[in-house]
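Before the break, one more example. Copy the sequence into your notebook; we will annotate it together after we see the structure.
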Amino acid sequence: MVTSNSTKFKSDEQESYLRLKRDLSWREGFGILFVRCTPVQEKCIIEAIKQDINDKTIDILKLDHSIYNLYDLIEEKVNDNPIDILFISGLEKSLALDDYIKRTLENPRKSYQREALASLLGHLNWQRERFRDDFNCCLVFTVRKYTLRYLVRRAPDFFDWRSGVIEFPVDRDIDLLDYYTPFQADIEQEKLQDVSQDIVHSSDEYYDLLKKLLLLEYENDGDLQAIHDVLESNADKLNSSFAKILEQWLLKTCAELNPEEKEAIAGIVESLCLDISQYNLGKSANNLEIAITGLETVLKLRNRENRSQEWAKTLNYIGAVYSYRIVGDKADNLEKAIAFYQQALRVRTFEAFPEDWSMTQNHLGIAYYLRIKGEKAQNIEKAIACFQQAFTVYTLEAFPEDWAMTQNHLGIAYYYRIKGQKAQNIEQAITCYQQALRVRTFEAFPKDWARTQYNLGNAYRKRIKGEKAQNIEDAIACYEQALTVRTFEAFPQDWARTQIHLGNTYRKRIKGQKAQNIEDAIACIKEAFTVLTFEDFIEILPRGNRKFILKLTYNIISTIVSKLRKLLGWAKTG
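Here is what the structure looks like once it is written out:
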C-alpha cells in the first residue's frame, strides 16, 4: 500500500522507496544496505523513513571530510545510544576519487588496481567481521552511482556483505567518464585556436576544471557548496576561454549520442551553468557570461517538438540570467529576458504545467518592473498582473515559500507603482510585505526575512497614511532588524545599502533630539562608505534625497559634517 510519505516521491521513485521501507521494517540486527540516490533524494528518503518506521531508532552519520577508520565513528554512535538503523552519507568525501578519476582517464584498466587504495577502503575490507560482530544495527550507505562503482571495484570484500542495493531512478543516469577521453584528444589538436584571446591558462587547465565541475555536478546534484568551493579556488579560470571550451565539449560530445544520452549530458551542463551563475565571489560578469554560453548551447540541443518541457525550462533559465547580466546594455538584456520568458510560456501554460507557469510568471513580473524600455507606468502594471497571475497556483497552503516570494515581489511593484493613488499603493506594498513575513521568519529563512524587513522599512519611510513620526520609527525598526542578518561580515553590500537608507531615515526623524538624529545619520552614511564606491552610493540613494546626498563624496565628507552642524546653528569649535 502506498503511504502518505511514499507519495512525496515521484511515481518512478515510489517503488524503490517502498522496497527500502519494507526491507528496513522487518530487518533485525546487523545488515548492510546501499541506496544509490542523489543528495536531494537522500534527504527525502531519510525524512520519510523516520516517519514511516517510527518503532525503530534511526540516526544519521554524515561524513563531511576524509576519514581513516569508519568503524571508530560508528562505534561512537552506537556505544551509548542503541540504534536500529544508521544512515551513513557523504562516503564519497572520504575516498581517493581524484586519483581514481585520473587513473580511469589515463587507463581504464588501472581503475581496478589496488595501488593508492584509500585508507578508509582498506579498513572496510579488513574489518568487515568486526562490523558484523560488534554492531547490532543495519548500516544504510547512501551513495552516488560513481561512488557505488568505486566501492565495487576497490572494496569488494566489504561490498560483498551487502544484503542489497536499492537504486533510485536518476534522470541523468550515465557514466560521465565515458565522454571525457575522446574529446581530450580534440582539445589537444585544436590548441584552442578558435577560442578568444582571453587565454591565460593552458588548455589542459581549463579542461581539467571542466572535468572536475561536471563530475561534481553529476555526483553531488544539489550540493551547491561543493561546486562553489572549486569555483573559488579556480576563479582566475572563469573567463571566455572556459566558456568556449564548455561550448565545444558539449556540442562535440553530443553530436553522435542518442537522444537519451544527449539529454542527460545537457541536464548536467544546465545545472552546472546555474550553479556558476549563482557564484559571485569572483568576476560575476564572467560567471554570468559562462552561464549564458552554456545555457544557449543546451538550448541548441533541445527543440520544442521533441523536448518541449525541457526546452521551455532552459528558456526560463536563460531569461533569468539575462535579467541580471552585467555585460552589454542593461535595457537590451532585460528585453531579451522578457522575450525568453514569453517564449517559455508558449509551452508552460496554466493548463499543462501550472507550477512551471507560475514560476515563469513570477520571473516575467520581475523583468517587467526592472524594465527600462517602454512606458514605466505600464511596465509596472504588467509586473503586478504577472504576480497576481502566479497566485492562482502559488497559494499559502500549497506553496508557502513561493507564495511569500511572490508577495515580496508584488510589494516591490506596488511600492514603485505610478498609476493609482500613491498612498494606497504604499499601503498595498506594506500589506504584501507583512504577508510575506508570515512565512519568511527569522528562524526559518533569515536572509529572506532580512530582505523583506528592508523592503518594509522602505515602505514605512515613504508611507503617507498614519502618523509620520511613527512611520519613521517603524522604518528605523525594520532597517535595524534587517541589520541583524545583513552584517558587514556576511553581506557587505546589503549591509551598506541598509545603512544608507537607515541614515537617510534618521535624517528625517521627528522623535528624539534633532542633533542626535543628525549624528546617527552621519554615522550610518560614513559606515556605508567603507564598502560602497561613490557610484554605488549615488545609485542606492532614494531619488528624492539626492539633492542632499550628492554633496557627499569621499574627499568632502568632513565638509558635509560641518555643514550639517551649521544647519543646527552650532559654532565650529577648535
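Confidence is low (pLDDT under 50) at residues 108-117, 181-197, 551-556. Strands lie at 31-36, 58-62, 85-89, 138-143, 164-167. Try to locate both features in your own notes.
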